[in-house]
Amino acid sequence: MSASTRKRPLGLIAGLVLTGLLLAVALLSLVWTPASPTKMQILLKLKPPLVAGLLGTDQYGRDIASLLMVGAWNSLSIAFLSVLIGAGVGTALGLACAIKRAGIFATLVLRGCDVLFAIPPILSAMMLGAFIGPGRFTAIIAIGVFMIPVFTRIAFAAASRIWARDYIMAARARGKGAARVSIEPVAPNIAPPILVPGTIQLRLALLPEASLSFLGLRPPPPAPTRGPRLAAAQTFLRPAPWLALLPGLAIALSVLGFNLIGDGFRDLLDPKAETGR
Amino acid sequence: MTQPLVRVEGLSIETASGRPILRDLSLTLGRGKTLGLAGESGSGKTMTALGVIGLLPAGLKTTGRIVFEDNPLPDANDPAWDDIRGRRIGMVFQEPLTALNPAMSIADQVAEGLVRHRGIGWRQGRRDAVALLDRVRIPRAAERAKNYPHELSGGQRQRVGIAIAIALRPALLIADEPTTALDVTVQREILDLLSELVRDEEMALMLISHNPGVLSYATENLLVLRHGDCVESGPTRQVLTAPSHAYTRGLLEAIPRGSHRQRRLPMEGR
Amino acid sequence: MIGLVLRRLAGLVLTLVAVSALIFAVMNILPGDAAAIMLGTSASEDTLAALRSELGLDRPVVWRYLAWIAGALHGDFGRSYTYGVPVSELIGERLSLTLPLAGIALVLSVLVSVPLGVAAAARRRGIIDGLATLFAQMSVAMPAFWVAILLIILFSVQGGWLPAGGFPGWQVGFWPALKALILPSVALALPQAGVLTRVTRGAVLDVMHEDFARTARAKGISRRVTLWRHVLPNAAGPIVTVLGLQFTFLVAGAVLIENVFSLPGLGRLAYQALAQRDIVVMQAVVLLLSGLVIVVNFLVDLLQMRLDPRLRATPA
């Protein structure tokens, strides 16, 4: 019984639209925001949405909409860079390990992955933050390093499967060196299995990033990400709940967007996923 | 018994999109008799078997009816099937390794049917299961009762599959390519076992295979299927030695027999 | 099989050692001068020197590492610089909060997601399936602390039924202490439940179509019994694997949640230690939490062996 009708990729489209919108807003913030995000207007503090500014103001009178826009840019860029690090380093490592599966290098690297993966990213960020100081760089490094094991494992598994194929043996028999084989044809063929987890990891990077800023391990005040307002917002929960809810909603929407894209890609690339994993 | 045990009347199966799998098939099978279903893959023989035991994949449309022990068999998702399967009709599948639950001991898997249909306890069920494993010639059955499928050889696993299917002495046993996944030397033992059980219990056997050697060894009557149609039927010996249909002839000749000539199946005619 | 277990155990120890070395390196070698970090660069040279000798910073690194490990094995993690008390004391009280918190969250997430995932798979494309998928998508997207705050608003600020933070301690009484843990556990469990639901659904769907499920039906076993007796035990493997992997995130989440709800647990301790640059405490907490993750993954491996007899065979 073959899959007859092709499901229209609603999820993927929705995800792309959502993420596209958020990206657009984030990029827009680089050139324009409704009000300056750092401008404090104490007289206008804690006003609800639409009364003062599109989404209200925080306890310093700063316009929340502008803060969110800039925050979106910060969060997205940090998440993106971390995933880039993780994917870049991880894929390279995974490819290298696949060359000699049972070799010392592979064993060390894979064991190293277990080690890295054992330390929750929040804690490693805190450790780094203790002496580097909190900030973008810390967040990117901490999250990026945590992503490396994931990509290493995926790349390793995918590359191993390809190495087992006959045309690799044929290439090697012709005298093509292991490194060159890794570059071509192995590398291009592992791109698909990496894409899907890649987008998943993007969303996974957004959350720790938000958590880190929530805890205050973030760029210092003039550079807002969406997290810290939540921390401050807690004290103002009763009079101004939107202070806490709106930034979280923004984060949730971004993550949802990436989710939908990731799932959508997976359904596209693997039609057997009728099983709907 | 004058009435045949199983009567398939005009059974047709097609996919949801209308592609036919089986076209208007009719057959009868009497108690204690053996019927072979021959054909290549895609001929509809497995579907026929699944239809008789009510395990067709979801989404297929069936017309026609099957009468078993003088009663029409229920529709696909009718819970009445749970009383018929195992108890009155049993089935042995092609791939012994995947047909058994890897996480359950072989004794438990045999005992499960007994417990379910006879209402006995598990301890008693396991004891009876050991007797059954012995019957299908699993060496040292009592010791091996606690083994898991992966600890057995292919032939032994298939014996377990048979034990499961006949545990409640059903009137009809369906075997879908029971020897295809096994080594040649083991195939004959399994076929002998099946014949013996059929004789002892007076079961009817519906044996599906694409291998004429298997069919000639183990069946009295034969039905040849091609693309969902029955092209020939009759006593096995006759069909195999003097086939009246071009397709059947082609099927027999397509099997390499020492010489390396390979003939293609005739494409003409229905 | 004992051989396999021992081998895994050896792996566990190795990973623990490696993690501890990594943590120690990051906290002690990378920063350069730990004393300067802790006191700040404006401190006088004398104070710095005093702190250095007190912490044993003038000893060779390897010696310090071994001393640390040796102490840790006895439960002695040194002395907190900011609080002046043995770190083990600080940790002791906090463990009795963080462990139950993580435990309850884990149990909650499993209790919700496994039945939901099974039901969704059993009736694919039915209403339950749609709801389950929706739930999974959303709960995964929501940051844990946002859920936490949402819960606080709903149940505490508006409803006033449950405390918005703080922990009275177990000695006050089982129920009041538990009440303080309810909202945090739910906030912690929710994102996990989302992931687990999806995984359960997928795993069950896969196994449902395996041949042995059909064999069970051919025996006359009903759909329901087949699902619970044959399908689920075999689907449990991937689910348990994901549980293990997710545990890292559970711990990370606990760190957050404790801060949102002002719960005096290990996570909050880590945060405070960070703020005060108390390296001694930080090391200990990170080591403990990472150790917890490693141990849980080891237990997960053991559980896998229990679930799938094929894994128990020692390779020839």
The N- and C-terminal alpha carbons of chain C lie at a distance of 12 Å
Secondary-structure content class of chain C: mainly alpha
Intertermini distance of chain B: 35 Å
For the largest beta-sheet of chain C, the strand count, sense and barrel status come to: none
Q: How many β-strand stretches of chain B?
A: 10
Helix content of chain B: 25-40%
Which descriptor suits the 3D outline of chain B?
globular
DSSP E strands of chain C, number: 0
Strand content of chain B: 15-25%
Briefly say what this structure is.
By secondary structure, chain A is mainly α. Helices cover 70% and strands 0% of the residues of chain A.
Provide a descriptive summary of the structure in words.
The complex is a heterotrimer of chains A (277), B (270) and C (316). Chain A has 277 residues and is mainly alpha-helical. In chain A, 70% of the residues lie in helices and 0% in strands. Chain A has helices at 10-29, 64-99, 104-118, 121-132, 136-163, 166-173, 178-215, 227-235, 242-269. In chain A, helix 2 (64-99) runs antiparallel to helix 7 (178-215) and helix 5 runs antiparallel to helix 7. With 270 residues, chain B is an alpha/beta fold. Chain B has 11 helices and 10 strands. Chain B has a 6-stranded mixed beta sheet, with helices on both faces. A 4-stranded antiparallel beta sheet of chain B has the order 2-1-4-5, covered by helices on one side. Chain B is globular and about 50 Å long. Chain C is mainly alpha-helical. Chain C is 78% helix and 0% strand. Chain C has helices at 2-29, 34-39, 45-55, 61-74, 87-122, 127-141, 144-158, 174-208, 211-218, 223-260, 266-275, 279-307. In chain C, helix 10 (223-260) runs antiparallel to helix 12 (279-307). The longest helix of chain C has 38 residues, at 223-260. Chain C is globular, with a radius of gyration of 24 Å. Chains in contact: A-B, A-C, B-C.
